[in-house]
Here is the input.
Amino acid sequence: MSLWLRFLDWFTRTFGNRRRSVPREPLSIRPIAVVHNAVKTPRMDGWAQVRSDILVRDDLTSALDGIEEYSHIIVVFAFDRVPESELRARVRPGGDARIPEQGVLATRSQLRPSPLGVSVVRLLKRRQNVLRVEGLDAIDGTPVLDIKPYFPNYDAVPDAGVPEWARTLATNR
Amino acid sequence: MSLWLRFLDWFTRTFGNRRRSVPREPLSIRPIAVVHNAVKTPRMDGWAQVRSDILVRDDLTSALDGIEEYSHIIVVFAFDRVPESELRARVRPGGDARIPEQGVLATRSQLRPSPLGVSVVRLLKRRQNVLRVEGLDAIDGTPVLDIKPYFPNYDAVPDAGVPEWARTLATNR
Here is the structure.
């Protein structure tokens, strides 16, 4: 980017007419689907082989048309079993004492301020309003808020950098 | 997976004791941050070079500790400028007549039932509760609902399959 564009960028970011503070009003989001699988209680790992059916609302069946052409989808779901009293600012990933304590937003822990999970899963098949997926790390009954096709040239960053301790973990969820 | 495990899987999915239908209660999610950048009106593309500051709520500053060790983060944000009357079940990606009409959940369009965006962006730096990022496709003032570190071995699927027409698009947003 040229120096001039950078300056313009900085100037409008700093002095532009805009919403300067974090909006206070909560957003209300209606679930579009629910997870059906054999996992009845939360667990740390062992999700890779789990097959789930994502049952989408009847009124959204046609909104899925075309998704069967993708090998992977992104599922946005709600951690709806975490009591608010359990939320915390800092966690130790995997409960592992060798790992330095992290801010919860620097982890994938479900004890985060907004109880949202984002997972990339393999789409095995679609039958009308039911998506069969593999590897979704959400328990049975989990509300799903959004489903998106996965685009490698937009979503995949294979060489993204992570801290040394995280390299040995499949995920720190 | 063995045949027996598959059967068990299918059996519990089909007959298990669980929430069988999509929950009706909406989820209420409070924004954790707001986007500051030079983009004041929605646009289709040209986001790759855009720099944004994500201003996180003061009370969550320590919840960010450690995130500066990641090169990329996932930002979950709200499409809060889309009137409900504009939502639709089917869209034509990029408004391109050569592309077959798709169900909106098979695209990244913002006209989706739950107004959620999920983007992977480069984290340039953190200064206390402000994250400077590059490539976030959200306009100035956008509420941010969650921020997560990007783990390539969990989030990156470089060889994910997409339909032929999508291969030529950087993204169909």
About this structure: Residues 3-15 of chain A form the longest helix (13 residues). Chain A touches chain B through 93 residues (CB under 8 Å). Residues 125 and 132 of chain A are 5 Å apart (CA to CA).
